[in-house]
Design a protein that fits this description.
- It is an enzyme of class 6 (ligase).
- Its EC number is 6.1.1.1.
- By secondary structure, the chain is an alpha/beta fold.
- It is built from 16 helices and 13 strands.
- The strands form three sheets. A six-stranded mixed β-sheet has the order 1-6-5-2-3-4, with helices on both faces. It has a five-stranded mixed β-sheet with strand order 7-13-12-9-10. Strands 8-11 form a two-stranded antiparallel ribbon.
- Helix 1 packs across helix 2, helix 10 runs antiparallel to helix 13 and helix 13 crosses helix 14.
- The chain is globular and about 85 Å long.
Length: about 425
């Protein structure tokens, strides 16, 4: 039987200036805050009682690296952490076994337990590039999901209807298009919602594609007699192509562990329009400062200056101010056709007849294979001593050459 939920407060707590400021920080860049009034009262209660709120973000370790798209919610989590609240970084090692169906038109293929463990360790280390480790509660949902067992899973499934589940956009679309939906996919939102019950969270964060799952947490907390969490959704960061959300599978991403030069150059590669969509989500500048900068650009200031500022800020965050300055200078050198000062030095054996350009690219680490090297040559992306190479049969004789692939890969190759 459904139990009545605990109340957010027995009587309204005063909305102080600090509470209003916390609400502004919460709302910055967000898509939706549901229900906003409840969250304001939770903040007011925390201010009045000194009891920090519990704020949860769950990520499934489906890939080995975190990219800038993930940091949109991580940044928000850090902002709330800096307000003094308890931040829970939840690694969905159990739910990854199912695979999140959010926004998908096919069933997600499962990962092995070994892949999940390896990815989870990487997620933990990379998340701490944004979050304060000593102020973060790190949890794994296998802690409670493993203990549910068959009986607990059936009881959990009884707390939601198939009709309500089919209201979910992706399930609804797949059903009416004739695409298959596996029964185990219905368990995913239930288990994500159960995470909120286990952690007694006050607020859960996620991308806009997670709204259904976040609201499931509210529903299940009510079913378990808890005060329901609020749900905060953040926009999905559009990738480098300016079209699709940032995704490693689409190749339109910036990994937060990429070297400083690559990170800086990738930020500068985005369009001016996309830059203004990135600024409120990725920059820690005040909104007033961003609006002032945008007005200056509209009045005639070179938009590249604003883009350089964003590239410098992001590169500094994940590397250092010194690395960002060096990356900026490296970009300037390359844009002028110059060769970076710090490039790989490679020694290769050429033999009496020389070494084919495809093997040079592969053995110097500029291409993963000779077939990929040939593809790069066909695309005009390979240079030797600044000259574009079009002959895949070219052989380099003994000597030293600066070999370049694309705009950012260089090697000084010495053939003996």
């Amino acid at each position: 039987m459904t139990q009545p939920p605990a109340q957010a407060a027995s009587s309204p707590f005063p909305i102080t200036d600090r509470v209003r400021e916390a609400m502004q920080i919460t709302l910055r860049g967000c898509d939706e805050l549901l229900p906003a009034a409840d969250w304001e009262q939770k903040l007011a209660r925390a201010e009045a009682t000194g009891q920090p709120l519990r704020i949860k973000l769950g990520l499934d370790p489906t890939a080995p690296d975190i990219h800038l798209g993930h940091t949109v919610v991580l940044n928000k989590l850090r902002q709330l952490q800096d307000l003094g609240h308890t931040v829970i970084f939840l690694i969905g090692d159990f739910t990854t076994l199912i695979g999140d169906p959010s926004g998908r038109n096919t069933t997600r293929p499962p990962l092995s337990a070994e892949q999940i463990r390896a990815n989870a360790e990487t997620y933990r280390a990379q998340a701490y590039k944004v979050l304060s480790p000593e102020k973060t509660e790190l949890r794994y949902n296998s802690e409670w999901c493993d203990q549910l067992g068959a009986r607990g899973m059936i009881q959990l499934a009884a707390q939601y209807t198939v009709a309500r589940m089919m209201e979910r956009n992706d399930f609804h679309a797949r059903f009416h298009s004739g695409a298959s939906i596996s029964l185990h996919e219905f368990l995913y939102p239930l288990l994500q919602g159960y995470d909120s019950v286990a952690l007694k969270s006050d607020l859960e964060l996620g991308g806009t594609d997670q709204k259904f799952n976040l609201l499931m947490g509210r529903h299940l907390q009510i079913e378990h007699g808890q005060e329901p969490q609020c749900a905060l959704t953040m926009p999905l960061l559009v990738g480098l192509d300016g079209v699709d959300k940032m995704s490693k599978s689409k190749g339109n991403y910036i990994g937060i562990t990429e070297d400083a030069n690559t990170m800086f150059a990738k930020v500068l590669s985005i369009s001016d329009e996309l830059m203004w969509r990135w600024y409120p989500l990725l920059s820690f500048q005040s909104l007033a400062g961003i609006e002032k900068l945008q007005a200056e650009v509209a009045a005639g200031r070179n938009p590249k200056e604003a883009k350089v500022m964003l590239a410098r800020e992001i590169t500094t965050r994940f590397h250092s101010a010194q690395a960002a300055s060096a990356a900026e200078q490296d970009f300037i050198n390359r844009s002028k056709g110059g060769v970076p000062d710090d490039i790989a030095q490679v020694q290769l054996s050429a033999g009496s007849e020389g070494l084919g350009i495809g093997l040079v690219l592969k053995q110097s680490g500029l291409a993963p294979s000779t077939s990929e090297a040939n593809r790069l040559i066909d695309g005009g992306g390979v240079r030797v001593d600044s000259a574009v190479i079009s002959d895949k049969a070219l052989k380099l004789r003994p000597g030293t050459y600066v070999v370049q692939v694309g705009k950012r890969k260089f090697a000084r190759v010495t053939l003996a």
